[in-house]
Amino acid sequence: MESNLERIRRCELELQSQEQAIAAHERRLHLEEERRRLAIEDGADDLARRLADVERRRREAESGEERNRQLEFELESARHRHIELERRQADIAALDEKLRLQEVALEQKRIGMESSCERLRRCELELQKR
Predict the structure, then answer these.
(1) Helix H segments across the chain?
(2) Tens digit of pLDDT per residue, the chain (130 long)?
(3) Which residues fall within 8 angstroms of residue 113, CB to CB, at 6 or more apart?
């Protein structure tokens, strides 16, 4: 039969393992968030440059009807890419929310483990007093 002291030690080791897992998970979340942020910024910068370039070229080509049609196509393509980027940003926001909820659940689990260990410590003290 496992003594209370052994149970406390086991709980402390479990808690330490959980805390390490949480810390590793938080590092992964941070790196993923940074990667997504940079990808969005790169995409937005690229899109802004493309839109500005298409607009400039469209103004320069007002005299050529065929050229105008080509530029309108490029502008429409840029708009579609912009819509796709916005959709991806919404997807990323949903993923970020899901990850946040996972962090909350992990934190609640960690708190529960700490509480269990504390109860075991109190029981051990009670037993020692007797």
Answers:
(1) 4-60, 65-129
(2) 678 888 888 888 888 989 998 999 999 989 999 988 888 888 888 888 888 888 887 777 666 777 678 888 999 998 998 999 899 999 999 999 999 999 999 999 988 888 888 888 888 888 888 7
(3) 11, 14, 15, 18
